[in-house]
Amino acid sequence: MLLRGTEDESIHRVVAGAIANLAMNETNQELIMAQGGIRLLSMTAANAEDPQTLRMVAGAIANLCGNDKLQMKLTSEGGIKALLGMVRCKHPDVLAQVARGIANFAKCESKAFMQGTRSGKSLLIQDGALPWIIENANNEASPIRRHVELAVCHLAQHEVNAKEMISGGALRELARISRGCSQGDVRFLAQRILTSSPSFRSELRRLRIDYG
After folding, report:
1. Three-state SS for 65?
2. Residues with Cβ < 8 Å from 134, sequence gap 6 or more?
């Protein structure tokens, strides 16, 4: 692949954009992963400085994050850590793609939990994504905030994640989402989670936090 053979960042940007477009199709996603695409994208993410290149790379990884069949491989090959590494850029378009990737991953992971094909603590939490998620759950940029609010709710749906979410400060964000999220479906989901989770209910009472 071109990404292997050149250090020209303009070429990296074009190739990453092409991979992002290809990764919109599920069949292509599996081929990209089989050909080592996530490792190449991760290398580009680590070395690139140009925000447009990073946006393309983050967009490609975000598309791959939407495939529930690829989650374990995506994590083991450094996809989530590559996303988190790109937040160093601080460009809102890059951050929006990072947030979209995390939301896609959290949504697919939540689906796998409900179907009984996944168990244990979230791979996002294991890969260290929770501090960034909490920090950006109320980001002033709505494209970032909307994705991260959704990710918070998907993570919070599973009691196995509750301890880390409480200790990390996510519960306050979840309560805020349940009161004031502009996305009605996400707001109602947050309310349902807070009502049904024994761990969250107990901590809310202890902290005297209102919700819903």
Report:
1. coil
2. 152, 168, 169, 170, 173
Q: What pLDDT digit, counting tens, does each position of 63-96 carry? A: 999 999 999 999 999 999 999 999 999 999 999 9
Query: In angstroms, how far is CA 65 from the centroid of its own chain?
Result: 8
Sign of CA dihedral 167, 70, 40, 145: negative
Region 91-118 average pLDDT: 95
Is the C-alpha dihedral spanning 163, 152, 145, 61 positive or negative? positive
DSSP letter for each residue of 35-53: TTHHHHHHHHHHH---HHH
First to last CA, the chain: 51
Q: Which residue has the tokens 């020209």?
A: 8
* R_g of the chain computed on alpha carbons: 17
Q: What is the torsional sign of CA 201, 202, 204, 205?
A: positive
Task: Report which of 123, 126, 177 is spatially closest to residue 150, judged by C-alpha positions.
Answer: 177
Listing DSSP states for 57-82 in one string gives HHHHHHHHTT-GGGHHHHHHTTHHHH
Q: What Cα–Cα distance (Å) separates residue 117 from each residue in 100, 108, 190, 207?
A: 23, 11, 23, 34
pTM for this predicted structure? 0.92
